[in-house]
Write the structure tokens for this entry.
Amino acid sequence: MRLLVLGTVAYDTVKTPFGRREQALGGSATYCALAASYFTEVAILGVVGEDFNDSDRELLIRHKVDLSGLSTIAGGRCFHWQGEYGFDLNTAVTLRTDLNVLESFDPIVPEHLREVPYVFLANMDPEIQIKTLDQLTGPKVVAADTMNYWIEQKRGGLLDLLARVHILVINEAEVRQLTGDYNLLRAGHRILSYGPKMLIVKRGEYGVLKITDDSVFAAPAYPLESVFDPTGAGDSFAGGFIGHLAGNGNLQPEALRQAIIMGSVMASYNVEDFSTARLASLSRQEIDERYRGFRRLTEFGDL
Ligand code: AMP
């Protein structure tokens, strides 16, 4: 196994200006693993309830996602998130979060996944992220996400986690909240002093910034005429990014940039439809075509 993704497998109720879906398949691990599945072998570590549909399980299995670390709690219900977007699709308003089975989640990494080289710890209680890391025998790349709630409520635990993470992938509001600095570059450098070697700042429809001690790389988001549902864009980005890295095993600067574009490709497809509909039905040809589209978008000659 190349990549382990810790995160939620959820049912989401989502309203955007273009429609509404109830109890649709979502969750950070779902989006991340589906995106990564186009590039590498991926396993999910998470928990679902008895209400998890066979058809959703089959969708993940069709994408060759290893579900041996996805436990089912008898009598329990899946994590449920309800959110809404206005015409500014960059910001979700959370209306409701039902932790359900997540409330008592104790992550146990199955024996055969403990030597995994690449790990993505999606947004979750930092204690659970750390407990997962503690069971791994020496991953080559650890990437993580977090959110405002943990920055506020579990700052100590989050800082302990950051000391053990190579790549932090968070959105720009979280960068500012974590550091108290409005300037992204300055704030980014401060975050690097907490432990990560690299920070990836997600900026919604404005793309991403990769910040290291001695470099900055910017990638735009793909200009799309029809965006239906931004839910999962960040996790699809993360899946495309780390999935591509895990697939080719190269961590040179150019490979990291390519992985960032691949993350952006997967996020751009994901937002074209509700839930996982678009992400689950892609072809390698479509992925490569949009990758080339990104190149054309930003190419310019020397002076
Ligand atoms: P994203 O749009 O990439 O930030 O992630 C959206 C996904 O995150 C949705 O499918 C939700 O099920 C999931 N999600 C929402 N809130 C939380 C939370 N507090 N903890 C973990 N996952 C969440």
User: Anything to note?
Assistant: The domain at 3-298 is CATH 3.40.1190.20 (UDP-N-acetylmuramoyl-L-alanine:D-glutamate ligase).
